[in-house]
Amino acid sequence: MPQTHPAIDQATPTTAPPAPPTALSLEERLTFINAAMSVRLDEAKVAYEVNTAHIETEPVDLTDVVTVPLTPTLQPPPASYPTPVAALLQRAHHRLLTGGWCSGALVDEDGARCMLGAIRAEARGDSGLEADAAAVLLDAIRRKFGDVDSVPSFNDAHGSSRVPIRMVDQAAGLADARGL
Description:
180 residues, mainly alpha, elongated
């Protein structure tokens, strides 16, 4: 006897056909592009590090590189240090920021001052306080730059105000740490 098999109806599919792809929204496309760019930037960063690893470099002192817009004439002077020499150096620092810095003279024709000129102006005739402030400033300079003859020679050796003004500020901190 022949075996009979039930007929399979080929007209009805057993699974539903896949839905046609829908277009991505702008947000989804931007997310994918952001992910792809992040991967490419990471690869470029690694490639740059590999390609430049053999180049010898010296560390950069960011205080000489990073500049921000200074408007010291619009800003009030900072709170004064409690010790007299530190307060004097802090006032001298503020004077250099607001009145300008010069080299080759205590005061130039525009009213800008050198490091010692700013200290002298802020000492207001107190020669002992002026001498103490100049000594602390010279010590701060020597700590950073080695053997320096004097504050005026250090001041005149620079073509811009960045380093001298920064040294007056550091000397104020040093004087405060010493309780002067």
